[in-house]
Amino acid sequence: AQSVTQLDSQVPVFEEAPVELRCNYSSSVSVYLFWYVQYPNQGLQLLLKYLSGSTLVKGINGFEAEFNKSQTSFHLRKPSVHISDTAEYFCAVSDPENTGFQKLVFGTGTRLLVSP
Amino acid sequence: DADVTQTPRNRITKTGKRIMLECSQTKGHDRMYWYRQDPGLGLRLIYYSFDVKDINKGEISDGYSVSRQAQAKFSLSLESAIPNQTALYFCATSDYRRYNEQFFGPGTRLTVL
């Protein structure tokens, strides 16, 4: 079964600094990869997704992620964060080879704390 | 108006009580899901439904039941609530053509005393 590891439970960063949130997945076969963001007291919202093609994926709010098959990673980056980026970020994976239900497997989340 | 709504948003109840959490969507999606979120554990799938007549257990369905009353409505019930069901519950929807891009409701915070 696939699994997702987000090693950092919390990442503190100053406003306008760059940030990288790490995500590693367990399988080296074909995967679909996702990053979701959860703002305080809200549901999850899709930031970006990788299905195929270019390994550099751009999402909303200036975020991007790079799919690295050899490293089984899908790290999320932003060159300059804002206070409003304070939220919890979830990496998720699904298996496109599964002819049945392609469920999403979520990581445990990384809380990004942006301070002035 | 929100595309995926959940009621109630907060609920405190006692051990042994029956609780129903409701989810409605206006996105026209066929697939609906219930997840629970616990600190440090991420989201875990409780039940999912591909249409009104197709309901399936997820990874943690024990102690829960669901009802898909219509394409737009999917309810989660706790027949006899226990304290370890205290969690944040999310409903989500997706279109079968969109590779698991799921749209989430705002969540229901449930506390079982």
Number of strands of chain A: 12
Shape designation of chain A:
globular
User: Which structural class fits the helix and strand makeup of chain A?
Assistant: mainly beta
Regarding quaternary structure, how should these chains be classified?
heterodimer
Helix content percent band of chain A: under 10%
The ordered H/E elements of chain B are: EEEEEEEEEEE
Describe this structure in words.
The complex is a heterodimer of chains A (116) and B (113). Chain A has 116 residues and is mostly beta strands. Chain A is built from no helices and twelve strands. With 113 residues, chain B is mainly beta. Chain B contains no helices and eleven strands. Chain B has strands at 4-7, 10-13, 19-25, 31-38, 42-51, 54-57, 65-70, 73-78, 87-94, 103-104, 108-112. The N and C termini of chain B lie far apart (33 Å). The model of chain B has no long low-confidence stretch (mean pLDDT 93). The interface between A and B is medium-sized, with 24 and 22 residues.
Give the SSE map:
The complex is a heterodimer of chains A (116) and B (113).
Chain A: E1 4-5, E2 10-14, E3 19-21, E4 24-25, E5 32-38, E6 44-50, E7 56-58, E8 64-68, E9 73-78, E10 87-94, E11 105-106, E12 110-115
Parallel strand pairs in A: 2-12
Antiparallel strand pairs in A: 1-4, 3-9, 5-6, 5-10, 7-8, 8-9, 10-11, 10-12
Chain B: E1 4-7, E2 10-13, E3 19-25, E4 31-38, E5 42-51, E6 54-57, E7 65-70, E8 73-78, E9 87-94, E10 103-104, E11 108-112
Parallel strand pairs in B: 2-11
Antiparallel strand pairs in B: 1-3, 3-8, 4-5, 4-9, 5-6, 7-8, 9-10, 9-11
